[in-house]
Amino acid sequence: MSSRAPRKDRPNANEFASRIRQVRLQRVLAQSDVARAVGVTETQYGRYERGQSDPTADVLKRIAEALGTSTDYLLQGGEVQPRVDSSFADSSFRQAFQEAEKLPEEDRVVILKLLDAFLCKRRIHEMTRG
User: Fold this and answer.
1) How far apart are the C-alpha atoms of 36 and 74, rounded to whole Å?
2) Where are the domains of the chain?
3) What is the pTM of this model?
4) What is the CATH number of domain 13-129?
């Protein structure tokens, strides 16, 4: 079984493919998890990650939702700034985030990745249930 190279007439295809793979791995998700949440086969999703196929606008939106990111980021890149609402209803969350802000950068990155992975898996679970 041979693998097709990304098409030359789509210069941003490799960047898009690289971004969706990178985000998926950061979220500690398998291709099958994302494919199921998006409603495509694992084979088709793999084509998106290899730059061999472009998703439709609707599928692109569902990929972004499943990965917990924006279509703008997937298509164009750039910085994704995590936003934290300071008006937590549960004061223990607010206190935990205030303490976490005082930690070294490398520790904050680990905390954000763990939280992000948990929330992304939860979204995928909810998307596949209903």
Assistant:
1) 19
2) 13-129
3) 0.58
4) 1.10.260.40
